[in-house]
Amino acid sequence: xxxxxxxxxxxxxxxxxxxxxxxxxxxxxxxxxxxxxxxxxxxxxxxxxxxxxxxxxxxxxxxxxxxxxxxxxxxxxxxxxxxxxxxxxxxxxxxxxxxxxxxxxxxxxxxxxxxxxxxxxxxxxxxxxxxxxxxxxxxxxxxxxxxxxxxxxxxxxxxxxxxxxxxxxxxxxxxxxxxxxxxxxxxxxxxxxxxxxxxxxxxxxxxxxxxxxxxxxxxxxxxxxxxxxxxxxxxxxxxxxxxxxxxxxxxxxxxxxxxxxxxxxxxxxxxxxxxxxxxxxxxxxxxxxxxxxxxxxxxxxxxxxxxxxxxxxxxxxxxxxxxxxxxxxxxxxxxxxxxxxxxxxxxxxxxxxxxx
Length: 356
Description:
356 residues; alpha+beta; Pdz3 Domain; 2 domains; six-stranded antiparallel sheet; 10 helices
């Protein structure tokens, strides 16, 4: 681990601990925590126009919960069926997602708050009392839970119990679509992006274009977007030299072959109104993209048929209505053990030896 990473982690832990103390959190067994029976602003949130939207989402959440339970189970089984054990890597529900330290911690904190807020909203709208809300912090990694009054929850109608359990993952799915919409708006709405694209770095050191330059045209053809640049450069063969006009003058740039396609040899970003503004916009896009993907992943993972995850509890509540409490509990315990076995099988140990 690099010194800068260790320093960043230490600062993040110190800041998190300081904020925890400000919020009145207690410290025990290496964990900052706080319990309360109130969710600040919940009454205001479920009233008015926002309340109408949240009520519709809670009513639709069982559809998301049941569909997500099926999808999570399918993805878990597919992880074994498609490649089998022994390849030496863990197959996540959302492959290809890497998590940066600081933005990942902020994203996970946001996701957990939204998830538990979904449960709290559903409890309020179904009339089941919230017994306790908990927040905790392990190093910089946050956690939270909303605990309903057990007797009132068990007396509630089946639909209401499923709504309460499904609302957390449903809010995570909603977060994904909100982030997707914002990323799409910022990245592709032509009214928000300025003309031209900005050089953000070099693929090859000898390219005459410098970071911060705004590319206006290639061979006299105007470039307004990254796709425009890709199209114009794609008309030329690797080895050709093209005229590139920028806000700093006109330059002759050799077309190179990189990753199977002709390029100018630079990394570019959309122009949102200057280099520095564009850098901030790109960082924001990256954060929103990470937040959305992680939110979807957490929502799907929570719907695995494993108790005490939401998916396992949804399955148990549905079976309990038909088979009774004892039989439902035994079946869900068996399903939980099978799902955990599949999770373990998705962690594959590498073969050692020579590949011939």
